[in-house]
């Protein structure tokens, strides 16, 4: 990779190392300069720039990030489209993140160009939560290093995997002393039920017995006979030794004690036992509190179908100080105001505008006209459905019934715009008003663009990053802007105020500082069908058959 200052006239194909602003011209770093870009720079009086040229053996940053991320991703994980050398990995369900720390270190030690950052091993994660990110530090990575990193990521199976929570029907055995209040036992069950419920499991049955070894043994046998797993034993008095009442009861029932105690605080006095293949746990007193403790770590692994050994418990000391401190949130009691939010994949909705009168097409409604044997609007909607967008909302107007008929059976929401004759703004407004309140951004798609693909949409989604100021993402090809555009949710209020036969395009100019141009692989972002000649040319020249 060659880095340095070059003459602007010689910069075609080079990659900008730093952003440039000059008058109305605004190019961000990482932009591959087209002939039009070079002309614009020269017109702005910029004679020299700092840029990068790739050499043989260099793999561009986005390609490098995608290759490594896909090699890392195992079951239960999805990889977002790369952007600016970053590819994020997301959990597809609630569960536990599992990976080999030593192998991860080996990848990060290979080359300074390649980095992989993850959550902690065995972290409890939620669906759509970001669990890892691959970042290529410069604008390319050496092919040799990338190949070695990808091979390491796949060695013995993908490095990163999600173990989703499974539904378990657990038994709770609570012992009591003469002074034990039933209200305390009721509260304990309530808190434990909430713990299990947050991970997709339940307390199927509770046994309340005297605080005696034989009573515990009898309850354990009954729970096992009914097929409950895991079996959770909460003693009226804390366990102080392997021979105390709770462990003695587990052993008397035919079980074994694998380990007593753990290097996690709170949670030191947890007991790990087993009867056959069924985990039997003696709970520490802190499990009566909803605050995070060592029992949570063990329980989460068990509910995700993982085996927990005594060695696993003994290795939990690193990061095991869970005492309440200023920077540690208590997730079950609500996030602290000073705690950073967890990074989740943004929820991006898709609006497919399909209400127009199709006046230039003549007697045919272009939206129901066939492209390669499929109605045009169906192609646009199917692209949105196959992307990461959710929900997909289609706005109809002209020939509403005909458009609905060709979209039948699809998992979409259809909103009719009775004011479609007043212009595009009414359809945009109707669609925006139908969206749920919790969307982070929206694709504004046009029903007459049959060559938009999920890749186009997912690349826009990968570029969206409010923290980096990228809240309007515009597709480009050879430096020219096209459609669809991704808009951050903050612009929806302005969209609702639009009037007449205009879309949101002018808002791009009003918020140019928030615009991010996203290069696309083809010209599909320009191709709309308005006339019979457009339709004939498309079917004659671009058939995918």
Automatic annotation (TrEMBL):
Residues 171-304 form the MoaB/Mog domain. One of its GO terms (molecular function) is nucleotidyltransferase activity. The keyword Transferase applies. It holds the Pfam family NTP_transf_3. The keyword Magnesium applies. Keywords: Magnesium, Transferase. SMART domains: MoCF_biosynth. This is NTP transferase domain-containing protein. It comes from Parvibaculum sedimenti.
């Amino acid at each position: 990779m060659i880095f340095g200052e070059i003459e602007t006239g010689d910069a075609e194909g080079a990659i900008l190392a730093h952003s440039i602003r000059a008058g109305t011209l605004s190019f961000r770093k990482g932009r591959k300069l087209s002939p039009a870009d070079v002309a614009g720079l020269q017109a702005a009086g910029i004679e020299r720039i700092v840029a990068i040229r790739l050499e043989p053996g260099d793999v561009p940053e986005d390609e490098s990030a995608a290759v490594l991320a896909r090699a890392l991703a195992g079951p239960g994980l999805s990889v977002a489209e790369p952007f600016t050398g970053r590819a994020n990995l997301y959990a597809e369900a609630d569960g536990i993140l599992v990976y080999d720390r030593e192998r991860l270190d080996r990848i990060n030690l290979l080359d300074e160009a390649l980095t992989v950052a993850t959550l902690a091993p065995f972290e409890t994660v939620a669906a759509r939560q970001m669990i890892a990110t691959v970042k290529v530090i410069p604008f390319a990575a050496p092919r040799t290093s990338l190949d070695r990193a990808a091979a390491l990521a796949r060695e013995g199976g993908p490095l990163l995997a999600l173990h989703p929570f499974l539904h378990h029907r657990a038994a709770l055995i609570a012992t009591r002393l003469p002074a034990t209040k039933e209200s305390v036992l009721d509260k304990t069950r309530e808190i434990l039920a909430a713990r299990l419920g947050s991970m997709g499991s339940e307390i199927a049955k509770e046994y309340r017995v005297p605080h005696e070894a034989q009573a515990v043994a009898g309850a354990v046998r009954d729970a096992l006979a009914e097929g409950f797993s895991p079996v959770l034993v909460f003693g009226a008095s804390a366990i102080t030794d392997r021979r105390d009442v709770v462990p003695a009861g587990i052993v008397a029932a035919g079980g074994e004690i694998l380990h007593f105690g753990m290097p996690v605080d709170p949670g030191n006095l947890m007991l790990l036992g087993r009867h056959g293949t069924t985990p039997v746990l003696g709970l520490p007193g802190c499990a009566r509190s909803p605050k995070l403790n060592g029992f949570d770590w063990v329980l989460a692994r068990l509910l995700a179908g993982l085996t927990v050994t005594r060695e696993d418990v003994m290795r939990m000391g690193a990061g095991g100080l869970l005492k309440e401190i200023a920077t540690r949130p208590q997730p079950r009691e609500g996030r602290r105001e000073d705690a950073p939010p967890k990074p989740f994949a943004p929820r991006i909705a898709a609006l497919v505008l399909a209400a127009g009168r199709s006046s230039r097409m003549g007697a045919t409604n272009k939206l129901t006209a066939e492209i390669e044997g499929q109605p045009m609007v169906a192609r646009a909607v199917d692209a949105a459905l196959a992307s990461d967008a959710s929900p997909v909302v289609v706005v109809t107007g002209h020939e509403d019934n005909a458009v609905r008929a060709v979209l039948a059976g699809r998992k979409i929401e259809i909103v009719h715009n009775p004011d479609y004759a007043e212009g595009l703004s009414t359809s945009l407004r109707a669609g925006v008003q139908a969206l749920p309140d919790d969307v982070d951004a929206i694709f504004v798609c046009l029903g007459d663009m049959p060559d938009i693909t999920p890749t186009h949409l997912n690349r826009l989604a990968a570029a969206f990053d409010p923290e980096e100021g990228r809240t309007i993402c515009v597709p480009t090809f050879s430096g020219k802007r096209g459609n669809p555009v991704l808009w951050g949710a903050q612009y929806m209020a302005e969209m609702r105020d639009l009037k007449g036969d205009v879309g949101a395009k002018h808002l791009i100019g009003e918020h140019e500082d928030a615009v991010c141009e996203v290069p696309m692989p083809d010209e599909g972002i320009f191709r709309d069908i308005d006339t019979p000649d457009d339709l004939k040319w498309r079917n004659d020249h671009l058939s995918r058959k």
